[in-house]
Amino acid sequence: MPIYNKLVRDGIPKIIELDNKKYTMNVLDTAQHEVAIKRKLEEELKEYQQASSNEEAIEELADLLELIYAVLPLHNSTIEELEKVRLAKREKRGGFDKGYYLIEVKDDYV
């Protein structure tokens, strides 16, 4: 039996049961859940970086977004609050749409 030791989506136990397999699982407390989400975010980010097609990239981005949504309650926040902060930052500093890549800023203009 493979050993995973990682956070999985909520529907995975049912999928395993429907496949007539047995599993061992723990339900994490809040602190453990946050640590597991951070690890899973790293895993999914690596998978996004390694995606070789647009379809794969979108799948991995969806996983990242799902993890972001899952961690918000652990920070006493909501999707709506996150979006409000995102829009405020975008208004103040802009987005990342134009592909600007800053090389250097010179401190004095002599």
TrEMBL record:
Q: Which InterPro entries match?
A: MSMEG_1276-like_NTP-PPase_dom, PRib-ATP_PPHydrolase-like
Report if keyword Signal is assigned: no
UniProt keywords, alphabetically: Coiled coil
Q: Give the superkingdom in one word.
A: Bacteria
Residues in a coiled coil are 31-61
- Name of the molecule in the record: Phosphoribosyl-ATP pyrophosphohydrolase
**Organism source for this protein?**
Paenisporosarcina macmurdoensis
